[in-house]
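Reminder: ligand-aware prediction takes two inputs, not one.
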Amino acid sequence: MPSVMIVYASLTGNTEECAEILEQAFIELGADVEVVESIVADPEDYTEYDINIVGTYTYGTDADLPDEIVDFYEELEDVDLSGKIYGNFGSGDTFYEKYCKSVDDFDEQFEKTGATFGAENVKVNLNPEEEDAENLKAFAKKLIAAYEN
Ligand code: FMN
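Here is what comes back for the chain with flavin mononucleotide:
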């Protein structure tokens, strides 16, 4: 079974709640999972895990990255993650034009690392509801399937 690292940023708890659901889903699937807040995370740590995940909300005046994940974002592109699987999720608010933009921003960064896209981004409107929990569980399954391929 793969090892998984989830790095997340959450101001009001919605993305954190998603991270917890995802963590539980991976545990139920038999994976080893580590969950770390972005402010204390180092992208180099991803090299020790098979599946690399970012969870982030979107903020600011122009759908900016949260301040506490900017350093992680900038340093990520310099890490060689060839052979790793990646996936992104996050919470946003459909009220905003650039819904969950920060989640998509991480796709571009991961592409620079050489990691392999594992599953479609999961976007959650505010706090996760039943359907979102199902989507997060399906996301975990797809990432593991991508690892096993
Ligand atoms: N959500 C989006 O999807 N796109 C945005 O551009 C966006 N901008 C925001 C700007 C401000 C000032 C605030 C307060 C919220 C914004 N949001 C936006 C919504 C947050 O991403 C959303 O509330 C999210 O659930 C917060 O996640 P958290 O609880 O993990 O901190």
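The mean pLDDT is 97. The beta strands are 3-8, 32-37, 51-55, 85-92, 116-117, 122-125. We will return to this case in the review session.
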